[in-house]
Amino acid sequence: MNKTRSTGNTDAVLLDQATLYQYLNCGRQTAKRIAEEAGAVQKFGRTVRYYKPAIDAYLANRCSEQAVK
Description:
This protein is 52% helix and 16% strand. The protein has helices at 17-24, 28-38, 52-68, and strands spanning 14-15, 41-44, 47-51.
């Protein structure tokens, strides 16, 4: 079976792992932690995708909390 290639489309609503790392500009562990804390992990059988609007809302909320402090 041929490996699926990621196009790196960060405009998509559901991101794969490689695109998530690229979108957040961080490593695997940090990206997964952010996605889990944001509640953005979507599993479809063995496939895992990350819901971009949830990640965006989480990061916006974290940034606004830190700006207030």
